[in-house]
Design brief:
mainly alpha, 2 domains, about 10% strand, disordered N terminus, DNA-binding, sigma factor activity, DNA binding
DNA sequence: ACTGTTACCGTCTTTGACTT
DNA sequence: AAGTCAAAGACGGTAACAGT
């Protein structure tokens, strides 16, 4: 029975492979891998001499996946909720496209709130915390932004806004992460739009162990993760 | 006109007690 | 153990008002 070494990267890859077998979904697997790594970390802290066999590791992953499914209440909630990597089913694509246009018409703060809550499924509380606002302000700003979004959708976004004006020069992942770190709505907006222009999408954004974790996807389909 | 805050309301989820 | 149900809490939305 092969023992798992302390090489975190190797361990992560192994768990990811198990997760892919269980979930058949890359994003779910990344989530599951994070969960399992956390469980393994806790297990090791509780018992440093614990033997983490492959079978045991697989069991942990499987149980974690079952827990996830339970919480998600599969009967009432589609599996791809909040995820945008399901081929052919991109329910949030229109929101994303509208959002990118909207970003040129709304204040940065409102756009970022819409981005966080309607695209990345942040709660009002989380968005408020990130932007140093009250929950009420976030909710109202969101409502107003949504109204504007609907209005623009109704009018067919008739004038495709010129996206050249004001485009910043240095727009990369670090800029976006830094913008989030500094809680600067304008910078977040700029960086996000810059990436969108390069056809690089932030396909997922979530808190993992208290840190913001960004999942990017480039035009070639390459996916990578950046943690703030 | 725009933005932030507060109060209030409706909906959904969670939790605990109770019954089968 | 499993199912049911009511209470409590969390959450999102809206209206009204105030400040800039």
């Amino acid at each position: 029975m092969p023992q798992l070494g302390l090489d975190l990267q190797a361990l992560k890859q192994r768990i990811y492979r198990y997760s892919m077998q269980i979930t058949s979904d890359s994003w779910e697997s990344e989530d599951l891998t994070q969960d399992v790594l956390l469980k393994v970390h806790n297990l090791r802290q509780a018992n440093p001499s614990i033997e983490l066999s492959n079978a045991y590791l697989y069991k942990i992953a499987l149980n974690a996946w079952k827990d996830k499914l339970k919480k998600r209440k599969l009967s009432s909630e589609p599996l791809d909720d909040g995820h945008m990597n399901v081929p052919g089913i991109d329910t949030q694509l229109s929101t994303r496209e509208l959002l990118e246009d909207l970003a040129y018409r709304l204040p940065a703060r409102s756009t970022v709130i819409l981005l966080l809550m309607d695209v990345f499924d942040f709660t009002a509380k989380e968005a408020a915390e990130l932007l140093s606002l009250t929950e009420g302000s976030v909710q109202v700003a969101l409502g107003r932004a949504r109204q504007k979004l609907k209005k623009l959708a109704r009018t067919g976004m008739e004038s495709s806004v010129s996206k050249q004006a004001g485009d910043p020069a240095q727009l990369d992942f670090e800029a976006l992460v830094e913008a989030f770190r500094l809680r600067d709505p304008k910078a977040i907006c700029r960086s996000y739009l810059g990436l969108a222009k390069r056809q690089i999408t932030v396909s997922k954004l979530k808190y993992i162990n208290g840190k913001l974790t960004f999942y990017f996807e480039d035009p070639d389909g390459n996916r990578f993760m950046v943690t703030s």
